[in-house]
C-alpha cells in the first residue's frame, strides 16, 4: 500500500496513528526508500516495509511514541552474516533506517493536503527538515515528482540541515466498464494492486455497493460515462460489459484520444469488429490479460491484473543497461541481479548514500 491508500485510512479511522517511512536503504531490502506504513494505536497495521519481520518491533514502539509525541529513527542492520536477531525470515543482508512519526499537529495538516492532491490525481510531496535530531521536524507540502514510478524519498544535507524529500504518486484510475459477475474479481484484484477503480454500467441492479464495495460507481450509457469521468492519457480502461452495442460505442468514444491502457474482453475477431476497420492504437490490448492459459473468472482476473501492473511498470522502466547494477524498483525477473538465496528484492547499490549517513543529526 502506497501513501495514497494510507492517507485514506488515516482520515477515516478514529484511532491515533504513527507513520513509518523508510528513510534509507543499503544493500538488499524488501522495500525501497520512501515506502511507508501506518501503525494504529489499536494494533492495526496498513502497508508494509518488510516481509513481516520488522512490523512487530515497530508496533511495540507505537504506545511510547504516541505518549511522548516525538518522532524516532530506528535502524535495522541485517548485514552481518551471523546476526540472527531479526529471525531467519530477514536474510536480505541489508540495512534499513525507518522514521516513526506520531501523526498530529502540522504533520496531520500536511498529510490532509497530500490526500487532497492525490485524490485529484496530482503528485504531492512532503519536505521534512530535521531541527532536533530525528525527534522534531518542520513540514512543508511540495509539488512532488511528475511522472514518478511510485512513492520515493531522498535524504540529503542542504545548508547544514538534514532534509528528507518524499514524493507521492496518485493511484492510477481504472475504469471498469461492465458490472457483470466476472468484473467482481477484477475490481478486487485491481484495488489490491494499487488502482482506484470506478465501475460503470447502465444496469443499476449490477452496479451496486454490495457487489463493488470499495469502488466508485457510475450509472449510465457510454456517452454519459465518458463525459462525467473526463478520462485522460493517464487512465486505464477495461471494456467488459459483454454487450456488443455498448462496447462498440465506448470504444468509438475512446479512439480519438490517448490513454495509458485500454483492454477489451473477448476474442480478437470480436474486437476487430468493434474497431470497424479503424487501426488499433498502441494503447489498445486485446484479448485482454497476459497469456497464462487462464480459465474461469478468477484466473482471468489474475491475468488482467498482471497486465495492468506490467503496463504501469513499463511506463517507468529503466534502460536495459541500468538493470545490471540496480534493483531499486523491485523488479522480479528479466536477468536482474537476484538475492543470493534466489529471491529478488529491492536493492540499492552500497555507498549510494554513504555521505548522508555520516551527516545524520
Looking at this structure, what is the CATH superfamily of the largest domain?
A: NAD(P)-binding Rossmann-like Domain
The count of DSSP E runs of length 2 or more, i.e. the number of strands, is 16
Number of domains: 2
Number of helices: 10
Can you write the helix and strand succession as a string?
Answer: HEEEHHEEHEEEEEHEEHEHEHEHEH
Shape descriptor reads elongated
Mean pLDDT: 84
Radius of gyration: 22 Å
Portion in helices: 25-40%
Tell me the CATH topology of the largest domain.
Answer: Rossmann fold
State the CATH architecture of the largest domain: 3-Layer(aba) Sandwich
Region (Disordered): 319-347
Protein name: Putative xanthine dehydrogenase
Domain XdhC Rossmann: 174-308
InterPro entries: MoCofactor_Util/Proc, XdhC_CoxI, XdhC_Rossmann_dom
Task: Tell me briefly what this model is.
With 361 residues, this protein is an alpha/beta fold. The chain has two domains: 3-123, no CATH class; 173-315, NAD(P)-binding Rossmann-like Domain (Rossmann fold, 3-Layer(aba) Sandwich), CATH 3.40.50.720.
